[in-house]
Amino acid sequence: MQNRISSFPPIIDHQSKILILGSIPGVKSLEKQQYYAHPQNKFWTIIFNLFNEELTDDYTLRIDTLKKYHIAVWDVIDSCERKGSLDSEIRNEESNSIAELLEEYPNIKAVFCNGGKSYKSLQKILGKNYRLPIIQLPSTSPLHTVSFDKKLEEWMKIREFLI
Asked: What letter does residue 88 receive in the DSSP assignment?
């Protein structure tokens, strides 16, 4: 049985310089109504490591940290059918209005995709030669078996666009 699920609203403001796009929230995130809520997902650990901040479980403080460093978060997929949390199980997806969001927030300098699914989906939406850099990062999902140190090293690219 596949369930129709929907993404969350973007976390963004007019100071945002970086947009990080996932595919669509997993089961645990949907339950908690929080981005990257699965305890084994390394998204928050990576973000806090990038800026030498002390990791917190408080979601409001996590969002405040994103905003402090001018990072926006959203998903490429607005809604889809999916059993479980695997991107490979996504069916009948409908895209979020990424191009419109980027027009509305002109301070965004680069778009980073959290994993292959968001990157491939975004290329279908924006095309391969979009006006902003679109960079694929290794997924923070526990299913993506690249070491934490390797993921963190790749994610460090974000800081280059925040200067």
From this structure: G
Q: Which two tokens stand for residue 130?
A: 């979009």
125 and 98 Cβ atoms separated by less than 8 Å: yes
* pLDDT score of 111: 97
Mean pLDDT value of segment 25-45: 95
Identify whether the C-beta of residue 63 lies closer than 8 Å to the C-beta of residue 48: no
Whether this model's pTM surpasses 0.70 = yes
For residue 148 the two structure tokens come to 């934490």
Residue 19's SS3 state is strand
- Residues involved in catalysis: 41
The separation between CA 51 and the C-alpha centre of its own chain, rounded to angstroms, equals: 17
- List Cβ neighbours of 152 (8 Å cut-off, separation of 6 or more): 46, 49, 50
58-61's contacts with Cβ under 8 Å and 24+ in sequence apart are 59/32, 59/34
Please check the confidence at residue 1 and state whether its pLDDT lies above 60. no
SS3 for 68? helix
Report helix angle 59-68 to 43-50, nearest 10. Answer: 40
* Interatomic CA distance for residues 141 and 43, integer angstroms: 8
Residues 87-99: tens digit of each pLDDT: 878 889 999 999 9
Task: Give, in degrees to the nearest 5, the angle at Cα 77 between 35 and 127.
Answer: 125
